[in-house]
Amino acid sequence: DIQMTQSPSTLSASIGDRVSITCRASQGIDTWLAWYQQKPGKAPKLLIYKASNLQSGVPSRFSGRGSGTEFTLTISSLQPDDYAIYYCHQYSTYSRTFGPGTKVEVK
Amino acid sequence: EVQLVESGGGLIQPGGSLRLSCAASGLAVSSNYMSWVRQAPGKALEWVSVFYVGGDTYYADSVKGRFTISRDNAKNTLYLQINRLRVEDTAVYYCARSVVSYGSNEYFDYWGQGTLVTVSS
Known about the structure:
By secondary structure, chain A is mainly beta.
């Protein structure tokens, strides 16, 4: 099975900061990667699919890039609504695995 | 507007069975790929199962042989039958509309609010 790792596990940031989260796959997954945002007690929300495609309705401050084994989610200017946990998700292989999550918290 | 509403969760003893439901509106389960994803308390998300439009079904290795995904097109509802429950099956179970691209598996664009299954004696 492909293992997904994320770094950092926790990120402390202030409003207006540029924030980047890295997701690494244990083997190449082309660009079959999605990013989700989850707030406490809520369902995940799709942000990015196929590594860099912004889901409809998602603010343009979110962007994704990468291919193969290394991917990045960037928030260009952190807003109060962005404090949450972010998960990457590979859908290249049968196991369809998620990363362990990165918590973005108030600095 | 797409809405997915899960139900059927609860407290169940190890070894027991449960059927989860996901009632859909704003989309037809018969013409969409539909999945179950779970999340143990304080843990990451875990894909569980998917029902393809053509009727094929797939399961995570951790649930294969114990879980069965199905759908009722007339009721526009997706189900997950869970048998031989284990303590480690304790989780919030989400249903999700799944998007498939040629050459890949699915990502998930619409999610329900989830239903909590607690397995404990």
